[in-house]
Specification:
The protein has a two-stranded antiparallel sheet with strand order 1-6. Strands 2-3 form a two-stranded parallel sheet. By secondary structure, it is an alpha+beta fold. Helix 1 crosses helix 2. 30% of the residues lie in helices and 17% in strands. 19% of the residues are buried. The chain has four helices and six strands.
Length: 128
């Protein structure tokens, strides 16, 4: 998972609860949108951290780009447009994550749902 660059801090307790929920379901249902050029996690920093806790070797993703018209980024609290260049600057140049709940990413159309067994993502279950 070296390609992925977290974009925001996470709530550690929420990560633990999410990992437990995913483990109980035995399935990964929501892919993580990632900037195809940089590896920046657009949305799903909690899911990415939960994947590490679950020992997953593979991570279901949707590769997009910040310049893609289907991707809209806003400030979490105000809903105002968020400067995409500041995302690249903060994460790539300054090597810093944004605080928890800084950005909100909207995708049109909505991201697909998945049903992938965790064993497959751990590399322990053979594909049918």
């Amino acid at each position: 998972m070296d390609f992925f660059l977290p974009s925001e801090e996470v709530d550690d307790e929420a990560v633990l609860l999410l990992a437990a929920s995913i483990a109980q379901a035995g399935m990964w249902t929501t892919p993580i949108p990632v900037d195809r050029e940089t590896g920046i996690i657009m949305d799903g920093n909690h899911r990415a951290r939960a994947a590490v806790l679950l020992g997953l070797h593979y991570l279901p993703c949707v590769l997009l780009g910040y310049r893609d018209p289907r991707v809209v980024v806003t400030h979490w609290r105000s809903g105002e447009p968020f400067c995409v260049d500041s995302i690249h600057s903060q994460i790539l140049l300054h090597k810093k994550r944004f605080p928890y709940k800084t950005t909100r990413h909207l995708f049109a159309p909505a991201l697909p749902e998945t049903e992938i067994q965790l064993g497959m993502l751990r590399g322990t279950v053979q594909k049918p």
